[in-house]
Amino acid sequence: MRSKNTSQPFRHQPRKRFGQNFLHDENVIRRIVDCIAPSADDHIVEIGPGQGALTRHLLHECGTLDAIEIDRDLAAYLSRTLQQEKPFQIHQCDILKFDLATLTDQPSSLRIIGNLPYNISTPVIFHLLEKHHLIKDMTFMLQLEVVNRLAAKAGNKNYGRLGLMAQYYCEVEHLFNVPSAAFTPQPKVSSAIVRLTPHRVKPVEAIDVECLKNVIRTAFNQRRKTLRNSLKTLMSEQQLEQLQLDLSLRPERLTLSDYVSISNALSS
Ligand code: SAM
Q1: Domain boundaries, the chain
Q2: What's the CATH class of domain 209-267?
Q3: Residue range 116-132: mean pLDDT, rounded
Q4: Between the chain's N and C termini, which has fewer beta carbons within 10 Å?
Q5: Ligand 1 atom 4: residue of nearest CA
Q6: What pTM was estimated for this model as a whole?
Q7: What is the 4 CA–ligand 1 centroid distance (Å)?
Q8: Buried residues in 144-167 as b, exposed as e (16+ CB within 10 A)
Q9: Which residue has a Cα nearest atom 18 of ligand 1?
């Protein structure tokens, strides 16, 4: 890649610790940008812009862009190239320590995008869900296995804490798969694009979301146990009987709505 202002070639050795697999396939990049369909009103937050594969397309089509990049060399590269074309904010920091509330207080205003570093994608999603009220939608490239977990319904082998909490806050859409050949270096795992759209009105609402998280965590900590056995650390026998659920089921058989009922019975 040639840097625009220095005319020096930019040689970057991909850093494994930052999960650096750079997109180079223009057809895939275009397809992702088409799914995002940026418009002049949009406030986009890109996580891990890297060498700007997606950034350079989004920058000119959106209103405001904030890019969050941990790698100092890549942040500097973006600052001397794309930032000269159109001003945008580069935050050289760790997304897990970044508070989206520093960017806006407008509900449902941020569009989050990112070809996420696969080694931290699950913590990043949990971190962003904490600020779901500020987010309009999130479009991510992830490991296919993580997309399957996000979209899994009750009874599926991929069903668990990540999918339940993502679906509590968001509608989840698995958009399309991406071949490893689209990246340099190629990841050893399959990849896919997913869109998470926070519900404006949640289909089911927990009285206390911390209680819901605790119920789900407790149930899935012991996946092979029946509901009766895993939940007895949280509830009395009498409370369990009042749930009107089949207590011989394993945690993967219960729907999100069942988990919210259990949590609400505990909170009320
Ligand atoms: N968006 C680029 C692309 O598609 O070619 C790069 C994607 S690469 C898979 C992930 C990017 O996230 C890298 O640029 C990496 O340096 C950055 N990154 C890794 N960990 C991060 C963190 N904790 N916070 C912010 N950025 C991070």
Answers
A1: 16-198, 209-267
A2: mainly alpha
A3: 97
A4: C
A5: 23
A6: 0.94
A7: 21
A8: bebbbbbbbebeeebbbbbbbbbb
A9: 48
